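Quick sanity check, Gamma-glutamyltransferase:
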Amino acid sequence: MVLRLQEVFIYPVVVINYIEVEFMKYLVKGEYLQMLNIDTLHNPYPSRRMTVYAKNGMVATSQPLAAEAGLAVLRKGGNAIDAAIAAAVCLTVVEPTSNGIGGDAFALVWSKGQLYGLNASGPAPQLLTLQALEKAGYQEMPAYGWFPVTVPGAPAAWAELSSRFGKLPLTETMAPAITYAQQGFPISPTVGRNWEIAFQRYAQDLKEEQYQNWFKTFAPQGRTPKIGEIWSSADHARTLQSIAETQAHSFYCGAIADQIDHFSQRYGGFLRKEDLAAYKPEWVTPISINYRGYEVWEIPPNGHGLVALLALNILKGFDFGIKESADSYHRQIEALKLAFADGKKYIADPSRMTLRIEDLLSDGYAMERRKLIGEKALQPEPGNPHKGGTVYLAAADSEGNMVSFIQSNYLDFGSGLVVPGTGICLHNRGNNFSLDPSHANCLEPGKKPYHTIIPGFLTKGHLPIGPFGVMGAFMQPQGHVQVIMNTLDYHLNPQASLDAPRWQWINGKTVEIEHAFSNQVAEELIRRGHDIRWSVNTAGFGRGQIIWRNKEGILVGGTEPRADGHIAMW
């Protein structure tokens, strides 16, 4: 059978898996998009979106209104950092199912020839101790209520990024979000579905008085807003206006801090105004490995971008041919399992880590781990990855600035606790603390937990290629590995890298795969000892964004097909 090139792109992915190897080699060698100094980037996957191009600026997010908010700020004279802040703050309003004012944030910022890292995750309150959990009868950290609430870092991240790199005041960059909160906006499809799922769970599990403000804020009519229905929140608008006017001072030291403190004390919580006042986000040195001649960058622990780098460091010792092969997927899965085994053991607040990052990322250690990968599935000893709620966005401008930004409340809306009169749903990042006193990630007052949200960045020869990320708790490093390999090993363009069917290691030998995954490859993985499970829930496989800058300086972007993804550009 001979297929004309234009026909390949309308065939289902399963058909593509059976095209002759020589034809696939031809496809890879074709001339569709020369960039990144690799042969070519293409898209063999059916998609409702196309890779997009722009010269002056680009903002990619999981929600269209947020992306357009970032673009509006660019058009006003703001830079990529201003645009990222605008989009991030807007997402707390238009996608509250995944992030909020009371969450954490991380960022990688390329500016004037240098990559900067911002860790805006918060520590445990000083009053939160192991003894308090033991007294309450807990043997592991709960998901809801006051125990998993740590100091929120997102508002401090917005103010810090604006102060150091922004061109516009926060009152301008945050204006679109404030307007949407005041005047309302129509609920987008993915947000609407996730909102309803969260509501059903909260209605069943969160019946105590302390949770009632969540229902008053996010289900004021006794139900969630329907897809396309207008939703607004005056409380969100007032809080965001106050943060914008005070450079977040009111959140950490002023009236909002007082409201948080009062709410916490009223219901036996541990977070106090003193914890908020003592908080400062940290500028950190990003960590990286060289993969196929490119530098892949992540935020250092307490984030688990280290897991992605550990896996890629193992994988760079293999030669990969055809993407849709059992060998390729088997090695990726095994490398991620080994990386997670190390990550779950060693990642913690950096002041408590027992091994140096450079030792974990050494070529010698990668070689040792690589030798463990054989023909059959391994049985590692990690924790149990689970799904979470996060938003990721990427932004770039004509000045050369590029931003990889991620923020989250964790596990949908977070702790289920909404501070009365503020719209602030406090996150539950402390859920990732261990209660084992011998573990590096064990809960301590003032200590940051193992953190799942990670922004990524790619460079080559001291030049920026661009930001990338795949949100979704323990899927995130797995998504980063798959996106990087799709780009550098399989030469897929940004949209194709996101469109490609994904897999997710869960625990033990269990791997979930998307419905579009090759049956032939899945059957071979089963024969190799993997417990393969098909999933119809695409949300569990993460949601990503990518912006690359090519050799000509043109911005090239892709957005997530598993969400309400959108790229705004000019």
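Posting the structure with no commentary besides this: Residues 48-570 form one domain.
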